[in-house]
User: Fold this.
Amino acid sequence: MIILTILTLIVAISLQKNKIRPILFAKLTSIFLLFSAALSFNVLYIESIGSGIGIYSGFYQVSTISQSIDIFIYIIGAFILMP
Assistant:
């Protein structure tokens, strides 16, 4: 979701040609961060994530604790960017 946000902001910059104010980017980014937090919150209800899921031969571990930390970071980042 974060990658999609970055790509959306790049496309918005290229289409508007410097007509978008920085406050609008802050608002858009905070909306995308809150949306990412909502998507991460929905993942917490998957039953198999309780014990943790390892991908890339255990290099990246997804568990309820890591998802909770992601949600916390997204919400804090959105509140920091809100004007």
Summary: The chain is about 65% helix and 5% strand.
